[in-house]
Amino acid sequence: MEGTEIYGRRACQLVKELACAEPGQLTRFNDDLFNQVIKECTVHYSQFYELTRKMQEEGLDVQSARNADHFGMLIHHLSLLRNKRCLMAYVHKRSEVIQNLSWKVGRVLPEEIENKLSDPEKRYFKSHSSALQSYMRGMDGLDLTVDMVPPKDPYIKVRVLDDIGVTAMGDRDTNLARHSIHFLKRSDAEHYMFQGMMEELLG
Amino acid sequence: MASYYDIDDILAEEEFIPVVFQKAATGVGLLDPSSETNNIEQGAKVELPFWLAHELHTRQAVVMSIPSCFNQMTKKEIQADPGSVDLRNRCQYFYELGCKLAPMVSDRTIGSFLLYAFKNRYKEVLSKAHTSTFIASTKPLTLLTKEETHLCDAAQSSMAAFKKWRIGGSRFERPAVLGKKRKPSDE
């Protein structure tokens, strides 16, 4: 039926994938394994159902009888629950990381991260960040995602790591060319830094 | 009680436990490699993952015995030199599994044995995490269980945070999720 894998093994591999990843990092959503586990669940369900029918045909009470069929059913039932727990943990853990992304990286995801998400996860990210945006709008446009570290000085010195181009900074346009060094308002620079396009210059 | 979504808890319950079936079961022959039919006979000896063995044990369908990582040999080795036993290789979730097993098996010494192993290894783990440089510390790190690795990481990261606070490093951290520090330049 489902090959030679013992029950729950595939689901466990899925969870192991999470455990092996660096904390806070995402791996590509494992569609293949995820679907295999769901298929395994369907097999468990149909076998469970078959055994129930068999017991009913024999005229036994499914609730109280303790024969071999009962324990077969029990094992399928437990395996189903186990698979469910693993799948839920996989999705739950990833959703936590994705939620954090909208605080750390901002509203637009870099392509290499977006490729790792499944379609429902992309939708989840979008609606989470729009919920955050509308909450901040409700507080007179206060941006909650900046100043996560209490600032010592409102201005900082930064080096640009990527070609950003001419951008409006305060009341004038600034050319943020690669490798150029600027003295900017901290709140303007913060978003670029979180996206890895600038770095702070120390000293 | 660990959370439903706790990843370490899920993985700890995947460890295999030798059991003997007290009842027969139909339709699950896959669990017993020696079975020729699709059924499990009464008295069959198989290894089941803990999550399954535990539930069947509470319903008196199987009797659990102690997995090899808690056998007499391991106990003797740990008594001889706690810090140098390779527990990771034997069971990544040595303590977690031990705590789950202790109330269910006939061996009453598991609890105190776990405590002894943890206390004595803890001392070594922490002192190593504090003193050794990165290269020198990779060797003992391969012997640690998951729990001990977490402890060791915690000690190292608080040391690093303390040093950073003293010197006053960068206050902006690039989000870890973006990966490597610099993108390879594409021109």
From TrEMBL, chain A:
Main location per the UniProt record: nucleus
DNA replication complex GINS protein PSF1 C-terminal domain mapped to chain residues: 152-202
Keywords linked to the UniProt accession: DNA replication, Nucleus
Residue runs in coiled coils: none
Family listed: Belongs to the GINS1/PSF1 family.
Domain annotation GINS subunit: ranges: 54-139
Keyword Nucleus: yes
Localization per record: Nucleus
Superkingdom, taxonomy of origin: Eukaryota
Any one Gene Ontology cellular component term annotated for this protein: GINS complex
Name of the encoding gene: LOC110786897
Pfam families tied to this protein: PSF1_C, Sld5
InterPro entries registered for this protein in UniProt: GINS_A, GINS_bundle-like_dom_sf, GINS_Psf1, PSF1_C
SUPFAM superfamilies: GINS helical bundle-like (SSF158573)
Protein name, entry field: GINS subunit domain-containing protein
Signal peptide extent: none
Organismal lineage: Eukaryota, Viridiplantae, Streptophyta, Embryophyta, Tracheophyta
Gene Ontology biological-process entries: DNA strand elongation involved in mitotic DNA replication
CDD domains registered for this protein in UniProt: GINS_A_psf1 (cd11710)
UniProtKB/TrEMBL annotation, chain B:
Gene Ontology cellular component annotations, sorted alphabetically: GINS complex
GO BP of this protein: mitotic DNA replication initiation
Segments forming domain DNA replication complex GINS protein PSF3 N-terminal: 5-56
Pfam families: PSF3_N, Sld5
Signal sequence region: none
InterPro entries, sorted: GINS_A (IPR021151), GINS_bundle-like_dom_sf (IPR036224), GINS_Psf3 (IPR010492), GINS_Psf3_sf (IPR038437), PSF3_N (IPR055221)
Keyword terms of this UniProt record: DNA replication, Nucleus
Family annotation (SUPFAM superfamilies): GINS helical bundle-like (SSF158573), PriA/YqbF domain (SSF160059)
Domain of life: Eukaryota
Domain GINS subunit stretches: 73-165
Subcellular location: Nucleus
Coiled coil region boundaries: none
Family from the record: Belongs to the GINS3/PSF3 family.
Name of the protein in its database record: DNA replication complex GINS protein PSF3-like
Source organism per UniProt: Spinacia oleracea (Spinach)
Organism placement in taxonomy: Eukaryota, Viridiplantae, Streptophyta, Embryophyta, Tracheophyta
